[in-house]
Description:
This protein has a three-stranded parallel β-sheet with strand order 1-2-3, covered by helices on one side. Helix 3 runs parallel beside helix 4. By secondary structure, the protein is of the alpha/beta class. The longest helix has 15 residues. The N and C termini lie far apart (34 Å). The radius of gyration is 16 Å and the shape is globular. 28% of the residues are buried. The chain is built from four helices and three strands. Helices cover 33% and strands 13% of the residues.
Amino acid sequence: MKITADDVIPLENWPNMRHLAESVSLNRATHNTVSSWVPLELLKSPPSRFNYGVPERIISKLNLKIDNSPIIADLISSIVVARDSEIRYLEIGTSIGKTAYMVMALASAIRAPLCCFCLDIEEINPEFARMTEILLRTELKKISFEQEIFPKRLAIH
Length: 157
């Protein structure tokens, strides 16, 4: 894919503190509606091979509420808030799906055009798949979602 000047965000349109504050507010509202990001029993058994990228030491903290300190989902979302044109978002290592889901939900809430492509070596987290299906079924206006597993089967030696 060739990157053109239209693909680059001009500095004057770069997200500012207002965009970040809006993103934090909308993402916390989304985050607080989710009681469980992944069934804990799935972290140690199929379909997960690598605990969806969740280190053992943080499993107990996985579903805790978060404060208003900016997180990576807020920074990515602030770009969505700032842009008038479609954003193409590639997430490599989707894991549980928190970041991708918050970005998609924010884009849907503000009716921002977004194409989100999630790439992971794991089978998709069933809870992320369920939440995304509901989001797309109820809010599909200007948002599209593709999910690819690459490679679908990974031989570990």
